[in-house]
Amino acid sequence: DTAVSQTPKYLVTQMGNDKSIKCEQNLGHDTMYWYKQDSKKFLKIMFSYNNKELIINETVPNRFSPKSPDKAHLNLHINSLELGDSAVYFCASSFTGAGAPDIQYFGAGTRLSVL
Amino acid sequence: QKEVEQDPGPLSVPEGAIVSLNCTYSNSAFQYFMWYRQYSRKGPELLMYTYSSGNKEDGRFTAQVDKSSKYISLFIRDSQPSDSATYLCAMSILTGRRALTFGSGTRLQVQP
Asked: How far apart, in whole angstroms, are the C-alpha atoms of residue B20 and residue A80?
């Protein structure tokens, strides 16, 4: 059973298109995240949701819109894709109860290529 | 200056060598320190985590945290070709903004 699963694994699309990436976790965690990994392997937080509530919203263009229908799912919609959006996007989840270590579990990633 | 600095490598060692991977950081509020391993085209997987200062050992892996120097290390003993991967250090604060701040990763190649 995959703990954190993302779809699709690969996404190739044209500039200007709108696309979505989906993420689901079956670990019973209360917090989910989107990270972006650039070509130099640097992972940076984009968003986090706790029980469907947006907690972290980093300096990300508003073309990126996360949506959490329930605490096991966190989707990422990207409008008007640009060349610079090409990267690997990782979903992660963790339990953030009081005193809990911030152990985040990652999905396998979605490799987005914008042509 | 990045909050977390990590030597990108690549680091190439012979099988059986002891490997030392390091990160320095500037934010004294970090309390949790983690090491993730990422194989090519895979997601990061947690290797070890440590709370505050001290050492932690798990098999061939030892994590060390020195908060006074803002320096963390991961040691790999008897390195194996299967250890070849990118190693990412990550840190977080205890409360409030619960997101990991990552180093840029060190690519390790263990030669058979």
From this structure: 44
**Total Cβ atoms within 10 A of residue B13:** 17
Extract the tokens encoding B58: 């798990």
What's the pLDDT band for A85 if we cut at 50, 70, 90?
very high
Which tens digit of pLDDT belongs to each residue from A21-56?
999 999 999 999 999 998 888 899 999 988 888 888
Q: What is the DSSP letter of B78?
A: S
CA-nearest residue to A104 within chain B is B46
Question: Tokens at residue B31, please?
Answer: 């309390």
What is the rounded distance in angstroms from the CA atom of residue B15 to the CA atom of residue B35?
Answer: 21
**To probe the interface with B, which of A44, A48, A95, A102 has the most B CB atoms within 10 Å?**
A102
> CB contact, 8 Å: A104 with chain B?
yes
